[in-house]
Amino acid sequence: EVQLVESGGGVVRPGGSLRLSCAASGFSFNDYDMSWVRQAPGKGLEWVSDINWNGGSPYYADSVRGRFTISRDNAKNSLYLQMDSLRAEDTALYHCVREGKMLTFDLWGQGTLVTVSS
Amino acid sequence: DIQMTQSPSSLSASVGDRVTITCRASPGIASFLAWYQQKPGKVPKLLISAASTLQSGVPSRFSGSGSGTDFTLTISSLQPEDVATYYCQKYNSAPRTFGQGTKVQIK
Fold first, then answer.
1. Residue B86 contacts A where some CB pair is shorter than 8 Å
2. CB neighbours of A117 closer than 8 A, spacing ≥ 6?
3. Could you tell me if B85 and B103 are in contact, meaning their C-beta atoms sit under 8 angstroms apart?
4. B94 contact residues in A (CB cutoff 8 A)
5. Smallest Cα–Cα separation from A88: which of A111, A50, A115?
6. Mean pLDDT for each consecutive 10-residue tract of chain B (107 residues)?
7. CA B67 to CA B56: how far, in whole Å?
8. In angstroms, what CA-CA distances link A41 with A2, A21, A44, A48, B77?
9. Cβ–Cβ gap A108/B85 under 8 Å
10. How many CB atoms lie within 10 A of CB A44?
11. Which is nearest to A34 in space by CA: A45, A19, A18, A23?
């Protein structure tokens, strides 16, 4: 089955860190660029970061640049998001997303919830 | 960075009505515009790419148009299963910004 499964979310205090993981299956992971997209409770979609198929050219939203780091391990079919210096406004459901051949987001994981609270 | 402005933020229409959602990109993005549908409690689903290309399996009552700065998503005859929030997105380059979303409800 073609799917993306995120893990690693949880409750963390402001200033803390978390590392999110995304396990891909059912398709050739190393053929695709990948993104992280988040959605705060009751809010809209916010693109967070992306990385190209070979791990190069990472890009970040202004809101997370300098605090978050995206990476991937094609041998493990996995995508990661290292989140440091977390803030309350980072509280959201974080989705792992595949960028299809047209660069549109054609496969979404169910998400992992990150809550930043003291 | 390019700003994506969607309107309206919400709308309520009757079954069978024609519904139009607009998305404005500033500056322009050629046709690198996608539309997504997010039903309550579900992940977003890609409806349209390249401003007007309907994805496989998406009902033909959905259509997209526009290029450059102004885009529209049209539902020709609103159905109960179309209740959802719709998002536009520019995808040609980072940041791959989404619009604020339009919540569509049945009157």
1. no
2. A11, A13, A14, A88, A91
3. yes
4. 47, 50, 59-60
5. A115
6. 92 98 94 97 96 96 97 98 98 93 97
7. 21
8. 27, 21, 8, 16, 30
9. no
10. 17
11. A23
- The number of residues in chain A equals 118
pLDDT in tens, A106-115: 999 999 999 9
Contacts made by residues A55-61, CB under 8 angstroms, sequence distance 24+: A59/B94, A59/B95, A60/B94, A61/B95
User: Across chain A, how many H-helices and E-strands are there?
Assistant: 0, 11
Q: How many CB atoms lie within 10 A of CB B104?
A: 21
Residue A110: CB atoms within 10 A of its CB come to 13
Decide if pLDDT at A102 tops 90.
no
